[in-house]
Write a structure and sequence with these properties.
Elements: H1 24-32, E1 38-41, E2 44-47, E3 50-51, H2 64-70, E4 94-97, E5 107-110, E6 119-121, H3 123-126, E7 133-134, H4 140-150
Parallel strand pairs: 3-7
Antiparallel strand pairs: 1-2, 4-5, 5-6
The structure holds zinc ion.
Length: 151
């Protein structure tokens, strides 16, 4: 997690706006931040670090789910965590290729429960210069499997 958090954007909303959990100010910040994917964790929005492989190349959007299985990496946090009281609450968004709507065929990160409006198109950020990146550690289970293979 980065030290740099992104505050919610409060603005007057029409009284008929359906936002029972007050997530709209966070949604506004996520949508208006064009250079970094934001992840909701610890009750704040933080930059999400795009994973890179051992050669320092960004993992492609269609490989993110596989990378998640082998590395200590997870999808960005959706806003469902804002409804959980624990200070370190985190609900992971699902990464998938959209099969309907205007983003059909594109990789997105969205609420896995369909309960909050967290939604990010991944591909524009994949090619964005300066997006935060991180080389995540391999998961221990995989490391063990490799060790067994070589012993
Ligand atoms: Zn959610």
């Amino acid at each position: 997690m980065s030290d740099e958090s992104f505050p919610p954007i409060f603005s007057p909303t029409r009284s008929n706006t359906h936002d029972p959990y007050g997530q709209l100010p966070w949604i506004r910040r996520i949508r208006s931040t064009k250079n970094t994917i934001l992840s909701f964790e610890g009750r704040q929005l933080f930059p999400w670090f795009w994973p890179v492989n051992d050669r320092g190349e960004r993992v492609t959007p269609d490989e993110l789910n596989d990378h998640r299985l082998t590395h200590e990496f997870r999808g960005p946090g959706c806003l469902c965590a804002s409804r959980i009281q624990a200070p370190d609450a985190f609900t992971e968004a699902r990464i998938f290729c959209a099969e309907s709507g205007v983003v059909t065929g594109q990789w997105v990160a969205a609420c896995g429960r369909g309960e909050c409006k967290y939604f990010v198109r991944l591909e524009p950020f994949y090619i964005k210069l300066g997006h935060p990146i991180r080389r995540y550690d391999r998961r221990r289970k995989s490391v063990k499997m490799i060790q067994e293979f070589f012993s």
